[in-house]
Design brief:
Length: about 400
Amino acid sequence: MAEGHSMTVADVVADVLAGEAGDFLREAVELVARELMEAEISAEIGAARGEVSPDRRTHRNGYRPRGWETRVGEVELAIPRARSGPAYFPSFLEPRRRSEQAIVAVVLEAYVNGVSTRKVDRLVEQLGLQGMTKDRVSALCRLLDEQVSAFRERPLEGAYPYLWLDAKQLKVRDQAHVRSKALVVAYAVHETGRREVIGIDLGEVESEAFWLEFLRSLRQRGLDGVRLAVSDDHQGLKAAIARVLACPWQRCTVHFVRSMHQHCRPAQRSLVSAALREVFNSDSREQARERVSELVERLGAIVPKVCALLEQGEDDLLAFYCFPAAHWSKLRSTNPLERVNREIGRRSDVVGIFPNDAAAIRLAGALLIEQNDEWLVSRRYLSSESIALALALDIEDESDRQREEVIELTAA
């Protein structure tokens, strides 16, 4: 929309009366948007076009084009620019965050490739995105893929004493089939005390071989100084941690409690939960071990399976007690990541079935980049002084024990 060819209200009305209006609604929206932008830029500059005013702060500097997807189709906007000061952005446009661009890209990619459902059709209509071509969708996807790829491949510098690993199942279209695949994410606390998302990948299955490859890729990028890895119970992941990272493993206590509920009657669950909370909220490792013994003695006849599993996994469940007490509440479970996991789940639920692997990584990656940016500018998750204490701890005995367990598991 060139500056000298902008239509006025009279022009639009004349075209309608003459029966020459190509698309009355689109032209009307374009006209209103242009007038609103001109009013806003005049207010920011301090003077209207051509006006001499003592309140003028700068001058106009042409226009920049931008497409605007609306319910009436795409409108070509000419956004005014000023010579100095912050760049003007129209109030009626909401600059999409990276994750929002990603979800739009996923929806459109499914839509233009003919794998959309009624749900996706509705989303396309609500977003005002009809008429998108494969070329435009590819361009949007390519931009996001470059950002996500750079984030996933960036070098890791310094030490990361604490590492959390998590996996989430997503539905992905693979040729003519819809398969459930594992989206795995690695979060860590840096030696500065700040949290980071350090890795993301998508695997066919959550197997030991896949975890080995994933952890080795983190090592190649510079992951170092890991003193404790926290995750849910997965023997393949546990073996991969021992082989690649050679550090102690902390089993998520929250997931353990939920798992124990499956080994007792509903009426017994509150009793089991309370007893296990006492163990995991002890004042020391020694007190926790004493409470485990008391729990087994007291409840052994009532919930024998729970007591047997607790004794069997005691070392892995109490590994966090070897670290500074200020860190215990954050190390004994993967709960600090629940908000991020819920957000990934919320966005993936909107999509339902991803059209391909790249779309799943693109959406999750874009969301995690935003989360990582928030963590880097927010207050430290742990103090650098307490992190230094964790890095100075001697954990060789614990890691040797877990390596021996891995050898036994492999031999079996």
